[in-house]
Amino acid sequence: MVNIVGSADGTPIAFDKSGAGDPLILVSGALGVRADEASLAGLLASDFTVFPYDRRGRGDSGDAAQYSVEREIDDLAAIITAAGGSACAYGSSSGANLTLQAAHRGLAITKLAAWEPNFLVDDSRPPLPADYVAHLRGLVSSDRRADAVEYFMTQAVGLPAEFVAPMRSAPMWPGMEAVAHTLAYDGTVVGQSMSGKPLSGEWSAIGVPVLILDGGQTAWLTAGADAIAGVIPHAQRSTLPDQPHNVAPEAIAPALRKFFAR
Protein backbone atom coordinates (compact mmCIF):
# COMPACT_ATOMS: atom_id res chain seq x y z
CA MET A 1 0.00 0.00 0.00
CA VAL A 2 1.41 3.37 -1.01
CA ASN A 3 2.03 5.98 1.67
CA ILE A 4 0.88 9.54 1.01
CA VAL A 5 1.88 12.79 2.72
CA GLY A 6 0.60 16.25 1.87
CA SER A 7 3.09 18.91 0.80
CA ALA A 8 2.76 22.53 1.92
CA ASP A 9 0.59 23.40 -1.09
CA GLY A 10 -1.61 20.34 -0.60
CA THR A 11 -0.01 18.24 -3.34
CA PRO A 12 -0.02 14.54 -2.35
CA ILE A 13 3.45 13.02 -2.36
CA ALA A 14 3.74 9.22 -2.51
CA PHE A 15 6.50 7.31 -0.72
CA ASP A 16 7.57 3.83 0.32
CA LYS A 17 8.99 2.92 3.71
CA SER A 18 11.10 -0.13 4.49
CA GLY A 19 13.79 -1.32 6.84
CA ALA A 20 14.82 -0.37 10.35
CA GLY A 21 17.16 2.23 11.74
CA ASP A 22 17.74 5.92 11.20
CA PRO A 23 15.68 7.43 8.36
CA LEU A 24 17.28 7.82 4.93
CA ILE A 25 15.43 9.54 2.07
CA LEU A 26 16.25 8.70 -1.57
CA VAL A 27 15.80 11.53 -4.08
CA SER A 28 15.77 10.46 -7.74
CA GLY A 29 17.01 12.40 -10.74
CA ALA A 30 15.36 13.25 -14.06
CA LEU A 31 12.73 10.73 -15.24
CA GLY A 32 13.16 8.69 -12.05
CA VAL A 33 10.31 7.31 -9.96
CA ARG A 34 10.42 5.67 -6.56
CA ALA A 35 10.16 2.17 -8.05
CA ASP A 36 13.57 2.77 -9.65
CA GLU A 37 15.06 3.02 -6.16
CA ALA A 38 13.74 -0.36 -4.99
CA SER A 39 17.03 -2.23 -5.43
CA LEU A 40 19.06 0.39 -3.58
CA ALA A 41 16.42 0.63 -0.85
CA GLY A 42 16.58 -3.14 -0.42
CA LEU A 43 20.35 -3.05 -0.01
CA LEU A 44 20.14 -0.30 2.63
CA ALA A 45 17.08 -1.50 4.55
CA SER A 46 19.11 -3.64 6.94
CA ASP A 47 20.75 -0.51 8.35
CA PHE A 48 18.25 2.30 7.75
CA THR A 49 14.56 3.03 7.44
CA VAL A 50 14.54 3.95 3.76
CA PHE A 51 12.10 6.38 2.16
CA PRO A 52 12.07 6.46 -1.66
CA TYR A 53 9.41 8.86 -2.96
CA ASP A 54 7.83 10.00 -6.19
CA ARG A 55 8.80 13.59 -6.88
CA ARG A 56 5.82 15.74 -7.84
CA GLY A 57 4.32 14.98 -11.22
CA ARG A 58 5.60 11.39 -11.19
CA GLY A 59 4.22 7.99 -10.29
CA ASP A 60 1.59 8.18 -7.56
CA SER A 61 2.37 11.75 -6.51
CA GLY A 62 0.25 14.69 -7.51
CA ASP A 63 1.21 17.90 -9.24
CA ALA A 64 0.22 21.55 -9.42
CA ALA A 65 -0.54 23.92 -12.28
CA GLN A 66 2.60 25.96 -11.63
CA TYR A 67 6.03 24.54 -10.83
CA SER A 68 8.71 26.00 -8.61
CA VAL A 69 11.80 24.58 -6.99
CA GLU A 70 10.57 25.86 -3.64
CA ARG A 71 7.52 23.59 -3.91
CA GLU A 72 9.79 20.61 -4.61
CA ILE A 73 11.81 21.47 -1.55
CA ASP A 74 8.54 21.61 0.41
CA ASP A 75 7.81 18.09 -0.86
CA LEU A 76 11.11 16.85 0.54
CA ALA A 77 10.34 18.65 3.80
CA ALA A 78 7.04 16.75 3.98
CA ILE A 79 8.86 13.43 3.55
CA ILE A 80 11.30 14.44 6.30
CA THR A 81 8.34 15.16 8.57
CA ALA A 82 6.86 11.75 7.74
CA ALA A 83 10.24 10.21 8.57
CA GLY A 84 10.19 11.68 12.06
CA GLY A 85 11.34 15.28 11.68
CA SER A 86 14.94 14.83 10.53
CA ALA A 87 16.69 12.44 8.17
CA CYS A 88 19.73 11.65 6.08
CA ALA A 89 19.25 12.15 2.35
CA TYR A 90 20.79 10.75 -0.81
CA GLY A 91 20.19 12.45 -4.15
CA SER A 92 21.38 11.41 -7.60
CA SER A 93 22.01 13.64 -10.63
CA SER A 94 19.49 16.52 -10.64
CA GLY A 95 18.02 14.96 -7.49
CA ALA A 96 21.39 15.68 -5.90
CA ASN A 97 21.08 19.33 -6.95
CA LEU A 98 17.61 19.43 -5.39
CA THR A 99 18.84 17.86 -2.15
CA LEU A 100 21.76 20.29 -1.94
CA GLN A 101 19.36 23.20 -2.41
CA ALA A 102 17.14 21.78 0.33
CA ALA A 103 20.10 21.58 2.71
CA HIS A 104 21.04 25.13 1.74
CA ARG A 105 17.51 26.25 2.65
CA GLY A 106 17.92 24.67 6.08
CA LEU A 107 15.77 21.56 5.93
CA ALA A 108 16.39 19.06 8.74
CA ILE A 109 18.84 16.96 6.72
CA THR A 110 21.41 15.55 9.11
CA LYS A 111 23.78 14.17 6.45
CA LEU A 112 23.68 14.40 2.68
CA ALA A 113 25.20 12.25 -0.06
CA ALA A 114 25.11 13.44 -3.67
CA TRP A 115 25.87 11.29 -6.72
CA GLU A 116 27.15 13.25 -9.74
CA PRO A 117 25.21 16.48 -9.19
CA ASN A 118 24.78 18.56 -12.33
CA PHE A 119 27.39 21.33 -12.06
CA LEU A 120 29.03 22.45 -15.29
CA VAL A 121 31.90 24.72 -14.24
CA ASP A 122 34.06 24.78 -17.37
CA ASP A 123 33.88 24.57 -21.16
CA SER A 124 34.29 20.78 -21.41
CA ARG A 125 30.79 20.52 -22.88
CA PRO A 126 28.18 23.03 -24.10
CA PRO A 127 25.93 24.56 -21.43
CA LEU A 128 22.22 23.95 -21.58
CA PRO A 129 20.53 26.14 -24.22
CA ALA A 130 19.13 29.38 -22.82
CA ASP A 131 15.62 28.30 -23.83
CA TYR A 132 16.04 24.70 -22.64
CA VAL A 133 13.18 24.72 -20.11
CA ALA A 134 10.85 26.73 -22.35
CA HIS A 135 11.50 24.38 -25.26
CA LEU A 136 10.72 21.32 -23.15
CA ARG A 137 7.47 22.90 -21.98
CA GLY A 138 6.54 23.72 -25.55
CA LEU A 139 7.12 20.16 -26.72
CA VAL A 140 5.03 18.70 -23.89
CA SER A 141 2.20 21.22 -24.38
CA SER A 142 2.14 20.21 -28.07
CA ASP A 143 1.81 16.56 -27.02
CA ARG A 144 5.28 15.79 -28.35
CA ARG A 145 6.38 13.95 -25.24
CA ALA A 146 8.70 11.56 -27.09
CA ASP A 147 10.42 14.57 -28.68
CA ALA A 148 10.81 16.11 -25.22
CA VAL A 149 12.57 12.97 -23.97
CA GLU A 150 14.82 12.97 -27.05
CA TYR A 151 15.61 16.66 -26.53
CA PHE A 152 16.63 15.92 -22.94
CA MET A 153 18.77 12.98 -24.03
CA THR A 154 20.65 15.00 -26.64
CA GLN A 155 20.88 18.44 -25.02
CA ALA A 156 21.20 17.54 -21.32
CA VAL A 157 22.62 14.01 -21.28
CA GLY A 158 24.70 14.68 -24.40
CA LEU A 159 23.91 11.54 -26.36
CA PRO A 160 24.20 11.71 -30.17
CA ALA A 161 20.82 11.83 -31.92
CA GLU A 162 21.59 8.60 -33.78
CA PHE A 163 21.96 6.82 -30.44
CA VAL A 164 18.66 8.16 -29.11
CA ALA A 165 16.44 7.32 -32.10
CA PRO A 166 16.53 3.53 -31.53
CA MET A 167 15.69 4.07 -27.86
CA ARG A 168 12.16 5.09 -28.84
CA SER A 169 11.31 1.40 -29.33
CA ALA A 170 12.94 0.27 -26.07
CA PRO A 171 10.72 -1.09 -23.25
CA MET A 172 11.74 1.79 -20.96
CA TRP A 173 10.62 4.51 -23.37
CA PRO A 174 6.87 4.66 -22.48
CA GLY A 175 7.77 5.16 -18.82
CA MET A 176 10.01 8.08 -19.72
CA GLU A 177 7.31 9.61 -21.91
CA ALA A 178 4.87 9.36 -19.00
CA VAL A 179 6.99 11.74 -16.90
CA ALA A 180 8.32 13.88 -19.78
CA HIS A 181 6.55 16.94 -18.39
CA THR A 182 8.83 16.81 -15.34
CA LEU A 183 11.98 17.25 -17.44
CA ALA A 184 11.29 20.98 -17.36
CA TYR A 185 11.15 20.71 -13.56
CA ASP A 186 14.63 19.20 -13.44
CA GLY A 187 15.84 21.81 -15.92
CA THR A 188 14.60 24.46 -13.51
CA VAL A 189 16.29 22.71 -10.57
CA VAL A 190 19.71 22.65 -12.22
CA GLY A 191 19.22 26.17 -13.60
CA GLN A 192 22.41 28.18 -13.66
CA SER A 193 24.38 25.21 -12.35
CA MET A 194 24.70 24.11 -15.99
CA SER A 195 25.93 27.47 -17.27
CA GLY A 196 29.63 26.61 -17.45
CA LYS A 197 30.50 29.29 -14.90
CA PRO A 198 32.42 28.84 -11.62
CA LEU A 199 30.31 28.15 -8.54
CA SER A 200 29.30 31.00 -6.28
CA GLY A 201 30.11 31.05 -2.59
CA GLU A 202 26.47 30.61 -1.57
CA TRP A 203 26.97 26.84 -1.22
CA SER A 204 29.32 27.47 1.71
CA ALA A 205 26.20 28.02 3.82
CA ILE A 206 25.50 24.26 3.88
CA GLY A 207 26.50 23.28 7.39
CA VAL A 208 25.87 19.53 7.51
CA PRO A 209 28.25 16.71 6.54
CA VAL A 210 28.13 16.12 2.79
CA LEU A 211 29.58 13.35 0.63
CA ILE A 212 30.02 14.15 -3.07
CA LEU A 213 30.48 11.07 -5.26
CA ASP A 214 31.17 10.42 -8.92
CA GLY A 215 32.19 7.54 -11.18
CA GLY A 216 35.10 9.23 -12.89
CA GLN A 217 33.76 8.50 -16.39
CA THR A 218 32.54 11.97 -17.42
CA ALA A 219 34.98 14.86 -17.23
CA TRP A 220 32.49 17.67 -16.67
CA LEU A 221 30.68 15.77 -13.90
CA THR A 222 33.98 15.04 -12.18
CA ALA A 223 35.01 18.70 -12.41
CA GLY A 224 31.63 19.74 -11.05
CA ALA A 225 31.87 17.26 -8.19
CA ASP A 226 35.30 18.62 -7.30
CA ALA A 227 34.00 22.19 -7.46
CA ILE A 228 30.95 21.72 -5.24
CA ALA A 229 32.95 19.65 -2.74
CA GLY A 230 35.48 22.47 -2.64
CA VAL A 231 33.01 25.12 -1.53
CA ILE A 232 30.97 23.18 1.05
CA PRO A 233 32.75 23.38 4.43
CA HIS A 234 32.04 19.85 5.65
CA ALA A 235 32.21 18.03 2.34
CA GLN A 236 33.98 14.76 1.63
CA ARG A 237 34.83 13.64 -1.88
CA SER A 238 34.88 10.09 -3.25
CA THR A 239 35.05 8.39 -6.65
CA LEU A 240 33.61 4.96 -7.39
CA PRO A 241 35.82 3.94 -10.31
CA ASP A 242 34.24 2.96 -13.62
CA GLN A 243 30.68 3.62 -12.52
CA PRO A 244 28.36 5.24 -15.11
CA HIS A 245 26.00 8.10 -14.35
CA ASN A 246 23.31 5.49 -13.73
CA VAL A 247 25.32 4.04 -10.86
CA ALA A 248 24.79 0.41 -9.88
CA PRO A 249 22.99 0.04 -6.53
CA GLU A 250 25.46 -2.61 -5.36
CA ALA A 251 28.34 -0.21 -6.08
CA ILE A 252 27.04 2.79 -4.20
CA ALA A 253 25.27 1.08 -1.30
CA PRO A 254 28.49 0.33 0.67
CA ALA A 255 29.68 3.94 0.32
CA LEU A 256 26.32 5.26 1.54
CA ARG A 257 26.18 2.78 4.40
CA LYS A 258 29.66 3.77 5.57
CA PHE A 259 29.00 7.52 5.33
CA PHE A 260 25.58 7.59 6.95
CA ALA A 261 26.54 5.16 9.74
CA ARG A 262 29.32 7.37 11.09
Write the layout of secondary structure elements.
Blueprint: E1 3-6, E2 12-15, E3 18-19, E4 22-27, H1 38-44, E5 48-52, H2 69-82, E6 87-92, H3 94-105, E7 109-115, H4 132-141, H5 145-157, H6 161-164, H7 173-178, H8 183-190, E8 210-214, H9 219-231, E9 235-239, H10 249-261
Parallel strand pairs: 4-5, 4-6, 6-7, 7-8, 8-9
Antiparallel strand pairs: 1-2, 3-5
Describe the structure.
The structure is a single chain. The chain is α/β, with parallel strands linked by helices and 262 residues long. It has 2 domains: 3-121 and 197-261, Alpha/Beta hydrolase fold, catalytic domain (Rossmann fold, 3-Layer(aba) Sandwich), CATH 3.40.50; 132-189, no CATH class. It has 10 helices and 9 strands. It has helices spanning 38-44, 69-82, 94-105, 132-141, 145-157, 161-164, 173-178, 183-190, 219-231, 249-261, and strands at 3-6, 12-15, 18-19, 22-27, 48-52, 87-92, 109-115, 210-214, 235-239. The strands form 2 sheets. A 7-stranded mixed beta sheet has the order 3-5-4-6-7-8-9, sandwiched between helices. It has a two-stranded antiparallel ribbon with strand order 1-2. The radius of gyration is 17 Å and the shape is globular. The model has no long low-confidence stretch (mean pLDDT 97).
Sheet having the most strands: 7 strands, mixed
**Roughly what is the average pLDDT, rounded to an integer?**
97
Derived structural class: alpha/beta
* CATH superfamily membership of the largest domain: Alpha/Beta hydrolase fold, catalytic domain
Tally of distinct domains: 2
| CA gyration radius, whole angstroms | 17 Å
Assign an overall shape: globular
Count of β-strands: 9
Distance between the termini: 32 Å
Helix content: 25-40%
Question: Class of the largest domain in CATH?
Answer: Alpha Beta
Strand order of the largest sheet: 3-5-4-6-7-8-9
Give the CATH architecture of the largest domain.
3-Layer(aba) Sandwich
Percent of residues in beta strands: 15-25%
Can you tell me the residue ranges where pLDDT is under 50 for at least 5 consecutive residues? none
Report the CATH topology name of the largest domain.
Rossmann fold
The topology string of helices and strands comes to EEEEHEHEHEHHHHHEHEH
